[in-house]
Input
Amino acid sequence: MIRNYLKSAVRSTLKNKVFTIINVLGLAVGLAGSMLITRYVMHELSYDQDQLRKDRIFRVQLDRYSKGEVTTRWAAGAAGIGPELKNNFPEVEYYVRMCEDKQTFGHDDVAFKEEHIYYASEDFFKVFSFPLVKGVDSTVLREPHTMAVSKTFAKKYFGDEDPIGKMLRKNGVEEWVVTGVFEDVPGTSHMRFDALLSFSTYLTYFKNPDALNSFHWDGFMTYVQLYPNAKVSTLQAKLPAFVEKREGEGFKKYNAGMVFTLEPITRIHLFANNLMMDYGPNGNGKSVYFLAIIAAFILVIAWINYVNLATARSMERAREVGVRKVLGGLRSQLIWQFLLESFIINLMAFVLSLVLVRLLLPTFAALSGRNLDTSLFSNDVFLLGTVAVFILGVLSSGLYPAFVLSGFKPAAVLKGKLQGSPRGKFLRKGLVVFQFAASITLIVGTFTVYRQLSFMRNSDKGVNIDQTIIVRGPDINDSTYVNRFYAFHDDLTNYPEIVGVTASTSIPGRQPDWNAGGIRRIEETDESANEYRVLGIDQAFVPTFGLELIAGRNFSKEIKTDRAAVLFNESAIRQTGFKTPKEALNEQIFFWGDTFKIVGVLKDYRQESMKRNFEPLIFRNIPDAHTFYSIHIKTSNVPSVVTLAEEKFKSYFPGNPFQFFFMDDYYNQQYQADIQFGKVFGVFATLAIFIACMGLFGLSSYMVVQRTKEIGVRKVLGATVSQVIALLCKEFALLVAAAIVIAVPVSWLVMNNWLNEFANRISLSWWIFAVPGLLVMAIAWATISLHTFKAASANPVDALRYE
Output
């Protein structure tokens, strides 16, 4: 019997080629789109899931307060919190403390400026599950001047030689012995490091190692591993009282505060954003959830299409159902037949969707900026989920049409008196309203995302980032450095294609690592002190980056007392309590035990992205700053200038690798994650709208078939083609209007919530909602017109022949 059902189902599927193609294509595109998004979402949720003790490992993050408000949020916080937690709380089994060290390493004639090097506690490999290829996890970082390196790092310096016991020199002087080699850190780890240096070495740099127990020295990434039965909530609840007991008196004096938070490592990638001194930009949990919702929308819209298209054919197949019932066919048998048809359609769509996913996955990975696994079913969860979605699709898209078609009365069908039920009409219209509402919401979302990104990227930054080459400064700390840099500066600026050269501790687009608290006007008490971000610059920084001086003057090499001078930006002036920039000129501030004079005020500029408000910045005159060299050029022949800069750099700073990048690329990396999200959102929003249009085709077909006789009567009574088209389109206009009523508040709530993540954001203007509504209306009318024009143009005699 099943064989007969299958034959009948296959015959019906092949007989109606147009509807079969539309159904298969719609479902395949919907399944492929949702599978691609699911791969992305699963990738984002997979960060740090490979850590064996992930449920017991937490990063200790720090929020610092001043006058009751959060001033800084740190991924790498207080130096002393790790040992203090271990010594005072029985819940803590191990702690790991890490500190970044960007230096030049070399072996023989090979040298590189390394960006991802950290000092790390000796218990690092006891806590984290990064497999050691060589070395013992309990001893690899125990002794001073020992280090563990990744396989790629080892190959870069030692080739195919065994690196164990080999020597690396830091900055050409300090010798380090390789005692361990670990597998490269996977892309799904929030941590990014290529080598680890023993923290015991870091302790030897200080005459007083107790300095590393301070709660006022930030820049140390701290992790704790709890005992198996310990509760993180219990430990978290104890921390405020502990901090108050240890630091309360000092906080009262400075009207300050600090709050430590134990963040599960599996949440860091998606939910620990915009923290100081993190490994790099993280993901965005809200964006991932938005994409997951789009995946669900696409899938549901595709299934709705199948239901609408199947019921649109109900009038065509009504006579078939009537004949089968008269010949003794049972309703259950008809249901099985229609479910088999649904199975065949879904199976064809499923196979096609797998082909599409396999073809599109590399392109989608590039679009999303993620290293996605291109094998289809390497993940068991994805495999089981895909099979479950297929079964759900067969049932959800097949059951309703099966019950509707199998429920027709033979007598009514064979007499040609079949009418759709009011309940069925309401359901079909409701499904289309959902499609319209989803489409409008997605279009609103696309408009909003692109407008916000355009607003952030194109607004006036107040700083010139164009045609600027950034060179990582040399690792030199001797007394000859300043004179060498001045010679390097003067040599380069003699060339007409080079406009300016400056040295600084930070550059635009980078969060200043120097955060200083306790700064106040000289006549004020400590209770009035505030926190500021500090940049060390030379006198060429302001003109090189085109910053606007609104009061006072810039630093001058000729004025010797300028070593004790500072520049403030407008935000710093306001925070310090000055009413105007001019009022601040020549005023003195207390800065970490020294006195500095304000000689100039800069207009606020975007040191960081527009996700953040302007922050109070202080610029210290530090001629020996050498973290970054910025070279502003004025030529179209950029490669020749890069070659020139490299020659001069190696001439003045031999032994230091020349590493450079372009300022505009670096600055715009702040928006890279948002740009990628916008692209992915836009592509799949368009895909959802396309699938929804196919659903419209189904419903309009159903309506035209249902109202064929009505159209014939109206034409006999004198109705024109345009009047008939307008009549049928009016009903869909009402559905679009209902969808707009639903979509506007929903899309406003969703996108307003997303925009609240940005300190500087666009407003949701009325046209952002009006244009998508009109666009969907136009698309709906165009789709409907394909059917209605044909019906309205037909001879009414054909419709009324049997009346």
User: Anything to note?
Assistant: Residues 2-44+284-457+674-800 form one domain. The chain has three domains: 2-44+284-457+674-800, 54-271, 474-655. The first helix runs from residue 2 to 15. The two ends are 40 Å apart (CA to CA).
